[in-house]
Amino acid sequence: MRLQRKDLRRRLMVQFHGEGGLDYGGLAREWFYLLGIEVFDPRLGMFSYCNEQDYLLQINPSSSADQDHTLFFHFTGRLIGLAILHRHFLDVTFVSSFYKQILGQSITLADLQDSDPDVHRSLIWILENDVSEVPDLTFSTDEDELGDIRTHELVPGGANKAVTEENKFEFAKLMVEWKLIKSSSRQMCALLTGLNEVIPIENFRTFTVKELRFLISGSHEYDLEDWKRNTEYKGYESNDQIIEWLWEIVEAWDHDNQARFLQFCTGSSRVPIEGFQALQGSDGPRRFCIQKLEDLTRLPSAHTCFNRLDLPEFPVRRMLEERLALALKNAQGFTGD
């Protein structure tokens, strides 16, 4: 955290302690991936899932209980900025309001739907129905803060101000502002400060939410035909039996196994918005490559800096499946990049 802005923009080289390997891009990709897992882990308490269906992350307002929370979010902003600057992806997806605050865009009631679906449904009901007979509805909200229920007033004296037909739209607006902005404003301010130290915030102003999401996280959806089209072969041809078997196996895998395979080969489970043609290597865009390995006793191996899979020409499909599974299972550390 002591580094100055000019230092943060220098070329990034990663060396894992106790492991071999020169960083031509693959080690950095793996570093961002592993660090992101730790930083955005909800068990840490700084971020939380809005639900367990799509695993969208949002800042946890209760993180303010940690005396070093602003330092953490300052660091997180730098991490996001460095990942973007060096064209690496973080394995995380945030709620829409998170991106909008980076972009300087207005927050609306619709943004509450992915952040807090229950409150969103409640506000929609209030706006569409007569609330004259609804008891105990005031300009306040009860929040669970580490097991303690605390009342936050949306306006001064809000706990004693009833919500009526005349002011319910104001109530909904203030509730959205509290839920998505004010409840975690210190954390977001620290994050934006860190991000701005790497990339000026105004540089993001022309992006859409979707574009910023792809810029930070890439895509976790794989177009297998696009993957095949943008694959080079060294020592093999695209119609060789071993290559046809490989793509059949990959196509039959579920998304998690496909992601694990892409992570194994490239150091990232995400794909650029432009597709596989824009995979990054040590010196810019570098397409996925499958190279023939003559030694049949070897497992398939990868050179993540070059997005390359070294693949022996196994004589039967079952052997290929077994060796691939073993290689992915044992894929830890870097030797040879």
UniProtKB/TrEMBL annotation:
| One Pfam family matching this protein | HECT
Q: Cross-referenced SMART domains, in alphabetical order?
A: HECTc
- Where is each HECT domain found? 4-337
GO MF annotation, one: ubiquitin protein ligase activity
Give EC number(s), comma-separated: 2.3.2.26
**InterPro entries membership:** E3_ubiq-protein_ligase, HECT_dom, Hect_E3_ubiquitin_ligase
Q: Which domain of life is it from?
A: Eukaryota
Kindly identify the residues recorded as the active site: C305
Please report the name of this protein according to its UniProt entry: HECT-type E3 ubiquitin transferase
